[in-house]
Amino acid sequence: MKNKHLLILCLLLMNTSLTETSGQVLNKIQDRVFLNFKSSEGYKIISQKRDLNGKVWLIPSNNHPIPFDLSVSQTFSQTATARSQFYRIEEVDPVHRGELIKAELRETYSAFISNLLLIAEGIPMTLDYDVKCYRITYKTVNPWGKAVIASGSLFVPVGKLRAPLVMYQHGTILKKSDAPSNKLNFFDNISSDLAFDFSEALIGVLCSGKGFVTTLTDYVGMGSGEGFHPYVHARSEATAAVDLARAAKVFLDSSIIDNSGKTFVFGYSQGGQAAVALQREMQFYHSDEFNVKACAAGAGPYSMSKVMLDDLLSSRPHPNPFYFPYVLAGYNRVYGFDPSYQSIYKPEYIESIPRLVDGTIKGDEANKKLPSVFTEVLKEEFLNEIKTDPDHWVHQVLKNNDVTDWVPESPLRLYHGTQDKNVIIENAYFAKKAFIEQGASNVEIIEPIPNGNHYTSAIPFMTQAIEWFLSF
To answer: CA–CA separation, 34 vs 74, rounded Å?
Structure first.
């Protein structure tokens, strides 16, 4: 079936009450908008923009499962935050989210050997179980609710029954083939001097060695997955993780995972933001499947539209300037604001910079070809527009990927190093304040080690998060 577009173009001015198009009803009551469908089966995506001349359509993060399944719910609602708003309804084909395509055993890690290596590395953890590592190929959705194949990793403690589930969200990886599911074999993670060459795949070994079933999504477009990777796109980070866990449950015997659905979420750097996005996604849309007991987020860019944008515009030298064109490339592919980059980059950079973040090289290689002050490659007109127009598409797109617009019901710990220059700790301060102001009661900020930076805080964060999960 070809995709069909049903457009609702409704200008909400002050006291507009009712408009009907193609069987859909848009109703504005006080400060809320309600979109009512006729009772019928089908899958839809509802997107919005503030005016018809705007560059971007946005899918709301709240009250919109991906896709919108009319057999489950026939009403979409949201707070009317703008004087005008236009809505677009797109019909999409049915998606069998979480369908298992393939599970491949890649490695079995011995607890004895792993513990020797942990001692050698000075990592304060002792594993109790051998761990089987699988590469999982499964079906999920892209940012616009269309079916896509993705890859991820599954770690299973040998001999453990009724294990709780841990869902880990990995940090920034630029080269597509470096995704965790491609780093599952023992010698992928051991250097020539028999030390841990720490890929994030080993987080799964640590978690499952302590008795958890663990999943690590590669995210959309990484590993062997289809299409491009929408870097720090919050909703697709979350949906990819949910569907990997579903595929893992299909693969595993029902006696292996805790029948109560006890679930823990954590992640670092990009994965810190992705972990909070995942906690939000499961609380809003999948509480019947996953009983989230706690979330540990480390060094995440939770506030894309405020803290991270202000940090970029400060023009300070950045240790990883490739982060910024990586964000632009991912969001450009999702939202389509300027496919040619003509309005964004200075002419001498238009061709070269997008190629640096196309997934074929590592971040360190990209950094060598970029100025440490990334604003130097941006057009002055573009920078001025961002600084002077609060409704510019940059602000709208970044706000669409903030993960601070909700109230966490389960405990949330925000781990962050005070000397982090990659993702500054102001993200954690901003997020905690936002959550508390909205009514959250169990949000903490924790410093993994004194004066830690982005790298020295990583391993302490991971071991502390696992120990915290064990306390439940």
So the answer is: 10
Cα 450 to chain center, whole Å? 28
How far, in Å, CA of 23 to CA of 37, rounded?
Answer: 7
Q: What is the DSSP letter of 187?
A: G
**How far apart are alpha carbons 245 and 72 in whole angstroms?**
21
Any residues with CB less than 8 A from the CB of 325 and at least 6 apart, and which? 353, 354, 356, 357, 366, 370, 374, 377
Q: Which of these CATH numbers, 3.40.50.970, 3.40.640.10, 1.10.260.160, 2.40.30.170, describes 304-399?
A: 1.10.260.160
Residues facing residue 134 across a β-bridge: 105, 154
pLDDT in tens, 414-466: 999 999 999 999 999 999 999 999 999 999 999 999 999 999 999 999 999 99
pLDDT value, residue 25: 63
Question: What residue ranges do the domains of the chain occupy?
Answer: 4-91, 100-302+402-470, 304-399
Tens digits of residue pLDDT in 246-283: 999 999 998 999 877 799 999 999 999 999 999 999 99
Low-confidence ranges of the chain (pLDDT < 50): 1-23
Q: Classify domain 100-302+402-470 by CATH number.
A: 3.40.50.1820
Exposed/middle/buried for 380, CB within 10 Å: 0-12, 13-18, 19+?
exposed
pLDDT in tens, 29-52: 777 888 877 666 688 898 988 887
Gap between the terminal Cα atoms of the chain? 47
Edge-to-edge strand ranges of the sheet holding 443-446 = 100-109, 131-141, 147-157, 213-217, 165-169, 262-268, 291-298, 412-415, 443-446
